[in-house]
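Notes from hallway chat w/ T.B., transcribed later so I don't forget. T.B. wanted the structure written out for a chain they're using in a teaching module, and asked if we could keep both sequence and structure tokens in one place. Agreed to drop them here.
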Amino acid sequence: MLAHPYRTQLQNGTIREFLDEIHARSGLQLEYASNGLQLDKKVSPGRNTATIGGLLQEVLGGQNVKVIEKNDKIILVPSRQPLADDALLPFFSFFGVIEEEGSREPLIDAVVWEPTTRKGALSNFHGYFSLLLPEGKHRIEVTYTGYKTRTIELDLHGDERADLSLSPKDDIPEVIVLGNSAVFKDTMNKILPRQYEAYNNFLGENDALRSLYLLPGIMNVPNSFSGILVRGGEQDENLFLLDGNPIFNPTHMLGALSIVNKSSIKAMHLFKSDFPSRYGGALSSVIDVNTKDGNMQRWEGEANLGFLAGSFTLQGPLQKNRTAIMASFRHSMISPVLKWLQKDFHSDFYDAQVKLTHLLNPNNKLMLNLYSGEDKMNLQANTDNLNNRQQWGNRLASAGWTHILNSNSFVNTSVNLSNYYNLAGFIYTLYNDSTGDPVLSRSFNTYSSISHYNVRTQFEVHASNTLKLSFGAEAAYTRIKPFESKIDSTFAVDPASFQSITPLSFGEYKVYYENEWRAGKHWMLRQGLHLSVYRFRDFHYTSLQPRLFAAYKWNDGSQLYVSYDRMTQYLHLLTNPSLGINSDLWAPSTALLHPEQSNNIDFGYSIRSRKGLFLTAGVYWKQLKNVTNYAEGKSFFINTDSTWEQHVATGDGESYGLELLAEKASEKWNLHMAYTLSWNWRHFDQFNQGRRFPFKYDRRHNINAALTYKLDKSKDLSILWMFASGDAFSLPERIYPDYDNAQQIRNPDDLLQNYRFIYHFSGVNNYRTLPYHRLDLSAGYHPPVLKKRFRMNWAAGVYNVYGSPAQYSYGLQGTLNDKSVLIITKSRLFNITPYLSVSVSF
């Protein structure tokens, strides 16, 4: 009733006269007791009041009265306390979309804030926001990192929509923004394209993914599947989303670079502790990458040329303010200098993305997103006994629809397709013991592919400024096509030459619910549930995954937080224990190979001072169940269709540790330091006599230190130093073939003819490699803008300044007389490597 529209005909009068007028003209019954009210007091409410509540608020301001709505009546009763300033005012939604000025690109996590009442809201991934405010005048500030703050004078008398635009700052000093915002909604790390670009260059390629390697709890593992390990988890335990679509291998060059061109990225979000309920299917982390929708008002682009690759991104309107396109392409370069420096390594890759965005009307937007990328890599040792050939690629397509339902609710629906394939080949050579001459060479080849389809819808409802509800559902279908591994005289380059095993297909259905509640000025609670139902053939599995995050704001600059998450993963990544790099296969959960699960607990504290110092410290514990490994003496899916599960062993894991992060930003200096102390364990009944053993990448200490110094507005210098304890390895002393007929050798000319190996170990991961450390130097030059249109940036530096030994790939070497194959270490990727790159934006 207080929100009932009403405009008074009185310009001034007594409180009694206004109350009588409301009772007579509004159609509502108003009752009051005379005691406690100064009925003869003269008042002059403003002319802009448009509701019963707004008028009563001005008329009764300062009176010791309480208003009750009961039995279709408005009742005024005496109170010991004066009427609060907004007690009778109806609340309305101020909502809309926050965009970049000049392009209409939605801005993620922009802050809409009223300083006087300390009410605020954040824009979501599509720029949408909703803020409940009492009727009347308000002064609103809209802020976003790297953009000019915008102030809005608002006179609110009903739900009001305003699509707001922010303009970038002309001269943005390098500032690193990490950790929690002022509203401390989670411990998510948000990486913007400009962040860390001074010292995440990899041979001239500025890549957002490499920014993650600077954070505590995250390790880069070259020569492996995707190169990313988070808090003791396997490589497959990371969910990488490109505009909401899952990518099964998100890297080029075995983790050195991401598949997304930096100039096409809008923002990247990392979750490694508290996982929102909308995410599922991975145990260790979620990396959610959002790319640009395309400029709706003008054409612009960026081109980059470096030692590793050349790229460009072009975006602009096909129909101004209605339809936009963003196209991005990158391809590796054949640099003579790089080829001379890395004689045993060759990489050829590309990625291409096209994104179309169409605004049907202010409430509806359609998007079409297409991506294709591929890698081809060869590693050749200085001697001729090792040769790895890798080829892998991703294809994806998605169509999305976003719809603003009303002033406080939003829905996003999408249809997605993602495909990944992997072709790996490894040449081994057999030698004569007497002469040392090569006798026979064979190529071990594997091929597999996986396709994923899903339909997803997600709702977001702002019930109030202190309560936001999120819920949604998803139906997914996954089809894995494993192929028979084959031995040939040379590399197999045609996937059609492999014989396919019966495809492994499964379905998954998900629903989730989450509420985000701010209790007062100091507490925030986010709780939710993620329910998934899985089916593979006759195997059914239901997983209920609770999520909880709670934070206490100690003061304006510091907070404590705690979180608990349970995660379930139905896909298993199987990696051959010896043969080369990137030789990986995906497998579904079955009655014998149960789904992987994790339980995560985090405690942390963060503080941000007014002098630009940010500190965070946290401890974590993670329990892993049903993690996988090849069973003793087993290898790939070879000549088998129904017994492949017996080749896989499952066990448990545990990871715990301490993470520290310190950052200091000033006008000239920027300092970043991260330290991780961690323990990572595995336990398999079949291995190590049932005793637990350290995980392969159980690096006890990890340190990342980066420093940037700005010489002036156009020049800067950067230094990055990394240190990591050695990895744990269980190198087999011998590998020998497993033959039938009491180990009689049927064909002594080919040790690997029957494709079955037995690996002989004296212990599991009882060997430690040397610690790894590396120093990188870089310099940047940013000349003034040319003709108010073109901006250039130069970057030069040296990767691995003092030539630190890198991680190695592992190969096989065999001899005829003892019928054995030995593990040896060979080839490394990058030694001391100088680089130079240039980018032009227009």
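Follow-up for T.B.: The longest helix spans residues 15-25. Might be a good example for the class.
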